[in-house]
TrEMBL record:
Domain ABC transmembrane type-1: residue ranges: 1-162
SUPFAM superfamilies xrefs: ABC transporter transmembrane region, P-loop containing nucleoside triphosphate hydrolases
Keywords (A to Z) from UniProt: Glycoprotein, Membrane, Repeat, Transmembrane, Transmembrane helix, Transport
Keyword Transmembrane helix: yes
Family: Belongs to the ABC transporter superfamily. ABCB family. Multidrug resistance exporter (TC 3.A.1.201) subfamily.
Alphabetized InterPro entries for the sequence: ABC1_TM_dom, ABC1_TM_sf, ABC_transporter-like_ATP-bd, P-loop_NTPase
Official protein name in the record: ABC transmembrane type-1 domain-containing protein
Sequence intervals crossing the membrane: 12-36, 100-118, 124-145
Family annotation (Gene3D superfamilies): ABC transporter type 1, transmembrane domain, P-loop containing nucleotide triphosphate hydrolases
Length: 300
């Protein structure tokens, strides 16, 4: 921008009429820039979404690499990941096409259109207005290079477009209001530990079409030992700890709906060791106590 402003400032001081003629053609440079920015912003947002899909698949396979290896699922993992990347490849081709059209239009305007216009109108000024040919050449050179610097500066629109696309996602996370209220809740003075599920329906947010629990009802008295068999057992525990809210139905602790209980207090009443626990180099007792004390922050 400094080169552009300086070059055109020199041109205005020397032959202002030549500069005014060039300004008319600069619109041909600005129109492709505006189109390029909007198209690139839209494509960048789609690339980010497709990359997230592929990244989620990769993360799942890597986090369960021992299971994948034990069931000889490496080839299937690679095929799934490659299939997820196909969307990124198609969008990358579109992105390259948009870039090529933009660079080509900028090169045509700055390299040919501006030079041709300056040469034509400059010759008219020399022949009929008594302008010195050397001054026309100097102004032509200054405006030509100023236009090229402006075109090269506009190439940074890509970075601004990608930043704007990423910023939208970041702001969505920052402005998100959690559905689980952790402030305006109560804690029980005396807890007996009676748990009841009333017609609970639940599906994970990442897969709403896959129902984990449907019309699930169960009452567990105090001191009762219960075993859940199947993939829905982890969903029951996650709901009980209020890491998720049920889609329908209620979960009660001592007759009180757990939505009215403080999540921090509720999780502090439980101890959980998952199928893949994080154990530290200490005793079993200390590991259990640590997990009980930190369960309200992260589940292990």
């Amino acid at each position: 921008m400094s080169n552009f402003i300086g070059a055109y400032g020199v041109g205005i001081l020397m032959i202002w009429r030549l500069v005014l003629v060039v300004f008319s053609i600069l619109l041909l440079l600005m129109i492709p820039s505006i189109i390029y920015q909007k198209a690139l912003k839209r494509i960048s947002r789609k690339v980010r979404d497709e990359s997230n899909k592929a990244g989620n698949i990769l993360e799942q396979w890597i986090s369960s690499i021992r299971t994948v290896y034990s069931f000889v699922g490496e080839r299937k993992s690679i095929e799934d990941y490659c299939a997820a990347l196909e969307g990124c490849v198609e969008l990358g081709v579109k992105q390259s096409l948009v870039k090529g059209l933009f660079f080509g239009s900028c090169g045509f305007v700055t390299g040919f259109a501006i030079r041709a216009l300056l040469s034509y109108y400059g010759s008219i000024l020399v022949m009929y207005n008594g302008v010195h040919g050397g001054n026309v050449y100097m102004v032509t050179l200054a405006l030509f290079w100023g236009g090229k610097r402006l075109a090269s500066g506009l190439l940074n629109i890509k970075d601004f477009a990608e930043a704007a696309a990423a910023n939208k996602r970041v702001m969505e996370v920052i402005k998100r209001v959690p559905k689980i209220d952790s402030e305006n809740c109560q804690a029980l003075d005396n807890m007996t530990g009676e748990i009841e599920f009333k017609r609970v329906k639940f599906a994970y947010p990442s897969g709403p079409e896959s129902i984990g629990l449907k019309d699930f009802s169960l009452k567990i008295p105090r001191g009762k030992t219960v075993a859940f068999v199947g993939g829905s057992g982890s969903a029951v525990i996650a709901l009980l700890q209020r890491f998720y809210n049920p889609t329908a139905g209620e979960i009660l602790l001592d007759g009180v709906v757990i939505n009215k209980l403080q999540p921090k207090w509720l999780r502090y009443q439980m101890s959980l060791v998952s199928k893949e626990p994080a154990l530290f180099a200490t005793t079993i007792k200390e590991n259990t106590l640590w997990q009980r004390g930190c369960i309200y922050g992260t589940s292990y």
